[in-house]
């Protein structure tokens, strides 16, 4: 009794297989008919390769904006949660060039550092020395303030002591208010 289901499956498989084989044979015969096609085969993959848009992680020149004019950026929060946002292509290219992001594909980059990691990276890079006065510092300051279009990128961020950061922030605020009038 146990043999019959197996035998049935075998017969089913054997009956099902021949039509498939016949179809394949038919296709092969048609495709293989012109000898010129077979000869051209090695050339075709070589021509296709450049169209595959292979990207290098550090090559910002590979980036192309989406139809909406943005680059997709993804990353992780300090808690490890994934986030996603669309950014200006110029910012995306800057982040890649400054090694703060890597290219995933033509339209997408991935930010390497979470906010906490970024902060630590800047402070370690600057040896916890204030960019402005040379004393100990553990805050991050934007050289070109965010209010003026400065972004949180490695080149635009420096270590600053509390005092310098605060006085600079106050000055920027004054300038900001002044320019608004
Ligand atoms: Zn300082």
Describe the overall structure:
There is one protein chain. The protein is an alpha+beta fold. It has two domains: 52-112, no CATH class; 113-181, Orthogonal Bundle (DNA Binding (I), subunit A). The protein is 45% helix and 16% strand. It is built from six helices and six strands, in the order H-H-H-E-E-H-E-E-H-E-E-H. It has helices at 3-32, 35-40, 43-48, 89-97, 115-125, 162-180, and strands at residues 71-76, 82-87, 101-105, 108-111, 139-142, 157-160. A four-stranded mixed β-sheet has the order 2-1-4-3, with helices on one face. A two-stranded antiparallel ribbon has the order 5-6. It is globular. It starts with a helix and ends with a helix. Mean pLDDT is 79; it is low at 6-21 and 26-33. The structure holds zinc ion (ZN). Zinc ion binds next to helix 6.
How is the secondary structure organized here?
Layout: H1 3-32, H2 35-40, H3 43-48, E1 71-76, E2 82-87, H4 89-97, E3 101-105, E4 108-111, H5 115-125, E5 139-142, E6 157-160, H6 162-180
Parallel strand pairs: 1-4
Antiparallel strand pairs: 1-2, 3-4, 5-6
The structure holds zinc ion.
């Amino acid at each position: 009794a146990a043999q019959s289901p197996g035998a049935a499956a075998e017969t089913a498989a054997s009956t099902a297989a021949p039509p498939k084989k016949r179809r394949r044979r038919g296709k092969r015969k048609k495709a293989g008919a012109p000898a010129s096609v077979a000869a051209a085969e090695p050339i075709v993959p070589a021509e296709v390769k450049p169209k595959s848009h292979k990207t290098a992680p550090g090559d910002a020149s590979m980036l192309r904006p989406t139809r909406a004019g943005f680059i997709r950026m993804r990353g992780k929060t300090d808690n490890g949660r994934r986030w996603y946002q669309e950014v200006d292509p110029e910012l995306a290219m800057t982040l890649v060039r400054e090694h703060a992001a890597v290219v995933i594909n033509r339209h997408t980059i991935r930010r390497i550092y979470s906010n906490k990691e970024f902060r630590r990276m800047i402070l370690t890079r600057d040896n916890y020395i204030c960019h402005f006065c040379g004393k100990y510092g553990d805050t991050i300051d934007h050289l070109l303030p965010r209010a003026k279009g400065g972004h949180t990128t490695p080149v635009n961020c420096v270590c600053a002591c509390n005092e310098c950061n605060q006085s600079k922030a106050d000055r920027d605020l004054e300038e900001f208010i002044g320019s608004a009038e």
